[in-house]
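Assess the record.
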Amino acid sequence: MFLAFVVYPVAYGLWMAREPSLYAALLADPLYTQTVINTALYVGVGVNVKMFLALLLSGFFMRRRWWIRALLPVFILPWALPSIPAFVSFHWMLIGEEGLLNGLLWVPFGRPGPVWFNDRWLALGSNIVACIWKWMPFWTLTFFAGRMAIPQDVYEAAAVDGAGGYRRFAHIVVPLLANLYLICTLLDTLWTVGDFTTVDLVSGGAPAYSTNVLATLGFRYAFDAAQPALGVAAVMSALPVLIPMALVLMRVLHVRPVQL
């Protein structure tokens, strides 16, 4: 099973993308260079904003108020929804004058909102926001579980010493969850680099394929342009970044297990 579903697909992909001329063709294509920049922004901004907000929101949901606990199931709904209807709904929220967001902007400003998918930066920003919206609840729950594992007497000792909320966060939560935060960031980076569904369903690469990431560009090359080897090469070009990150992740897990 491992050979059939892991080793063979990876080995076959490497074999298809073995020709140096494929990478020369990629570098000569302005669309590929633009896509690399899109991927760096999509992953860099999306992952870091997602993780930071998830860490902060995990503290918010630790508060012992009934309405906050009641809000938690609503907050995790985007993550609980299947990806396809979630991102299709997000797309239709932004599409044209009929979109929900533009309708809401009309009420206070009395003018139509922007055409989100006719501008590269608005469309790329929409992809990033959709990715954060979909997956931030998962990481919030992860950090919430990490906070729950911190012994209560640590907080009580800090309160006796006069530590306020900021100092408890800086001197207790951050050091104790540092390993967990690093591992979650590395994992999410690996997943986001290969994310196809979000970009394909939210912006679809619009306008004029200017918001593609490597995963969607590889699909376009392989199927729309009927160049499967070039499509595989586009995706495989991320390996020089992914392999070191995977090695760092394995080393962190081996040398410094997650401590809560």
Q: What stands out?
A: The mean pLDDT is 87. The radius of gyration is 22 Å.
